[in-house]
Specification:
- The complex is a heterodimer.
- Chain A is of the alpha/beta class.
- Chain A is built from ten helices and ten strands.
- Chain A has a five-stranded mixed β-sheet with strand order 2-1-3-10-4, with helices on both faces.
- The longest helix of chain A has 23 residues.
- The longest helix of chain B has 34 residues.
- Chain B has eleven helices and no strands.
- Chain B starts with 5 loop residues before the first helix and ends in an 8-residue tail after the last helix.
- Chain B is mostly helical.
- Classes of the chains: A alpha/beta, B mainly alpha.
- Chain B: This is Molybdenum transport system permease.
């Protein structure tokens, strides 16, 4: 009986041992990233790992609001790359951040379609029924959705297009609604359109029609003091990383680089 | 502070309407299907029984993904629907009805199938000897004997549709009054950090589900559960 108990304990220790070491491991972080970063963040991590082969960076993508909720509820993320600046600020306000928000990019909203030639199309044109169903991200919790609503309102066509709107859970699902052709037009992130070049056509939504998509990241409480998390945060603000972000259609926010360090 | 906003009530009403329509249609479809599964000798019986049970094990996202592809403008069903001059199914109430019927199918068919099987052939043969026709046998003999199974099918079909989330997320499009059901609304509240509203709505869902299951056990004749 005693021997059985002892072997059981031994087994338990053996099973938990890898856990214990990974918890103490500082060369591994998990990054929570807005859905519009889907391809850009993959490239950033790849480039970073080129110089730091022993570093392990996992990325979890989702709507910024979803990720914020998860972090507030204790999700094990060291860095939070939001598609706006408001959510990282909220993390700071609630005492769940390990630094101040750092603007890293300015996102762009475009009108994309698989079936209709969108070149030269103005936002106000979307009121015409020929544009069919229009997919936007949910304005309630997705930054791109909020900007899409603002743009449609500013163009004075919100009430007219309302019956033709469908709402994606995040910007990636909104792209999927449009790419599958179920929605004829999607108001989506340029970064995701540029990630699959050659498909469909798109026109920019003038940034004068909505608040800027100023995107910030922040170190979470869990990430504070984590050398890898802090190093990656520095890397993202340097020219090579900036070049990658630019390739995916992000521009640099004013004051980026001179902003506060995490 | 009001407990439920107009939009919350709209989502609640829509959800109950969806579950009602789906349950009714599934009963009409499930009865003959369960009857056939019980009495046929066809070699297709087992594959078809497996297909009926598929939604039990498939993640709703798989179902939602295939439906989005099939029902979309490039999909087989989507093209057929367009050729008939009908409105496309994704992002519409009718689309949700079709998707929910698939999703809840086993929850209706399996209790019916079990109930029909429990009756066996004997009562039906006796009724036939006494001169009852096929319809008569089904309505006056099989259906009353299978009643507890019918109740279970209705309650499970209804409750399962009320709680549906994954499929709605994939093909619903979250349109107020058309496809924004209760589970989506709760999800949106949680994402927006509106925990109070999420709490109230979740409680509604909990109460509906509990009441349905309680009704099921109360409606069953005593002793049936134990046999």
């Amino acid at each position: 009986m005693k021997r059985q108990l002892a072997s059981c304990l031994l087994l338990l220790v053996a099973l938990l041992a890898p856990w214990a070491t990974s918890a103490a491991e500082t060369r591994h972080i998990t990054i929570a990233a807005a859905a519009d970063l889907h391809d850009a963040m993959g490239k950033l991590v790849e480039a970073y790992r080129h110089d730091h082969p022993d570093a392990v960076l996992d990325v979890v993508f989702g709507a910024s609001g979803t990720l914020l909720t998860q972090i507030e509820q204790g999700a094990p993320f060291e860095l939070f790359f939001s598609a706006d600046s408001q959510y990282p600020q909220r993390l700071v306000d609630h005492g769940k951040a390990g630094g101040t928000p750092v603007p890293y990019a300015l996102g762009h909203l475009v009108m994309w379609s698989a079936s209709i030639d969108m070149r030269g199309v103005q936002v106000a044109d979307l009121a015409q029924p020929r544009f069919g169903r229009i997919a936007i991200a949910n304005p309630q919790h997705a930054p791109y959705g909020k900007r899409a609503e603002q743009a449609l309102r500013a163009a004075g066509i919100w009430d007219q297009v309302q019956p033709r709107l469908v709402f994606g859970e995040n910007i990636a699902q909104t792209v999927q609604f449009a790419q599958s052709g179920n929605a004829q037009v999607g108001l989506v992130a340029e970064s995701l359109v540029l990630a699959s070049p050659g498909k469909g056509s798109y026109a920019a939504v003038p940034s004068s029609l909505h608040e800027p998509l100023r995107q910030s990241f922040v170190l979470t409480k869990r990430g504070a003091g984590n050398a890898l998390a802090e190093d990656f945060a520095r890397y993202v603000q340097q020219p090579p990383a900036r070049a990658i972000l630019a390739r995916y259609g992000f521009s640099l926010p004013d004051g980026a680089g001179t902003g506060p360090q995490p | 502070m009001t407990l439920l906003s107009d939009q919350d009530l709209q989502a609640l009403g829509l959800t109950l309407r969806l579950a009602g329509v789906v349950t009714l249609l599934l009963l009409l479809l499930g009865m003959p299907l369960a009857w056939w599964l019980t009495h046929t000798d066809s070699r297709w019986r087992r594959p078809i029984a497996a297909v009926v049970a598929l939604p039990l094990v498939l993640p709703p996202t798989v179902l939602g993904f295939y439906l989005l592809m099939l029902l979309g403008p490039d999909g087989v069903v989507g093209r057929a629907v367009a050729a008939l001059g009908l409105e496309a199914l994704p992002f519409s109430f009718r689309g949700l009805v079709v998707a929910s019927m698939l999703y809840s199918l086993p929850f209706v068919v399996q209790p019916l199938h079990n109930a029909f099987e429990a009756i066996g052939h004997r009562p039906l043969e006796v009724a036939a000897c006494l001169g009852a026709g096929p319809v008569d046998r089904f309505v006056t003999v099989a259906l009353p004997l299978a009643w507890p199974g019918v109740v279970t099918a209705v309650v499970l079909g209804f409750a399962h549709t009320v709680g549906e989330f994954g499929v709605v997320l994939m093909i619903g499009g979250n349109i107020p009054g058309q496809t924004r059901v209760l589970s989506m609304r709760i999800y949106d509240h949680v994402q927006a950090g509106e925990y109070h509203q999420a709490n109230v709505l979740s409680l509604c869902l909990l109460v509906v589900s509990f009441a349905a299951l309680l009704a099921m056990s109360l409606l069953r004749p005593r002793g049936y559960v134990r046999d």
